[in-house]
Structure formats: C-alpha cells, structure tokens
C-alpha cells in the first residue's frame, strides 16, 4: 500500500484499503512541508508504535505492521497538520 503526502497538507487519498494481517505501508513526501505517518484507532489512540518520518520533499520510508480487521486512521501528528487524516479500512 502506498500513501503519499501531497501539497495542501493532505494525503493523496481520503480512504485506503488493505487486507487484515501483515501490511507494508510505503510513504513518500511529495510536498514542501515536513510530515510523518502514524496509524491510529478511530478513537485517536495509537494502533501501532511504528511510524514513518517524512522530514522533507522526496523523503520516503516504509513500515510493516499487523492489523486486525476494522477501521483505522492514517494521520500526520505535526502541529497544524490535523487535516492529514485518512481512513484505512482493513478487511
């Protein structure tokens, strides 16, 4: 699964889909601002400890996580980036 940070303090999609179990998430920063990628439960708690740091344009990284079926949020936790909030639907 690929998640790209784009200009406008946003992800490249509002919803992502994945199969339950081990999921590898690749992320790239295509914007001019620093970002990070965290996976949260829908209540805002961290779903996994791992995250991807995207400090500058062109930065990329990946994490492999194990998720149960359900809905999660893909977020950037940098102050002021609360609009970077996408749904991750795991089936």
Q: What are the salient characteristics of this protein?
A:
Immunoglobulin-like; mainly beta; 91 residues
Task: Describe the structure concisely.
With 91 residues, this protein is mainly beta. The chain has no helices and nine strands. It has strands spanning 2-6, 10-11, 15-18, 21-29, 35-41, 52-54, 60-67, 70-75, 85-90.
Structural write-up:
With 91 residues, this protein is an all-beta fold. It has one domain (2-90): Cupredoxins -  blue copper proteins (Immunoglobulin-like). The chain has no helices and nine strands. The chain has strands at residues 2-6, 10-11, 15-18, 21-29, 35-41, 52-54, 60-67, 70-75, 85-90. The strands form two sheets. A five-stranded mixed sheet has the order 3-9-8-5-6, with no helix packed on it. A hairpin with a 3-residue loop joins strand 1 (2-6) and strand 2. It is globular, with a radius of gyration of 12 Å. The model has no long low-confidence stretch (mean pLDDT 97).
């Amino acid at each position: 699964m690929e998640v790209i940070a784009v200009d406008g303090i946003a992800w490249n999609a509002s919803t992502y889909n994945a199969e339950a179990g081990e999921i590898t998430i690749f992320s790239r920063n295509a914007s001019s601002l620093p970002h990070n990628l965290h996976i949260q439960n829908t209540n805002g708690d961290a779903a996994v400890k791992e995250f991807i740091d995207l400090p500058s344009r062109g930065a990329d990284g990946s994490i492999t996580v194990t998720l149960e079926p359900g809905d999660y949020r893909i977020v950037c936790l940098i102050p002021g980036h609360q609009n970077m909030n996408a749904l991750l639907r795991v089936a």
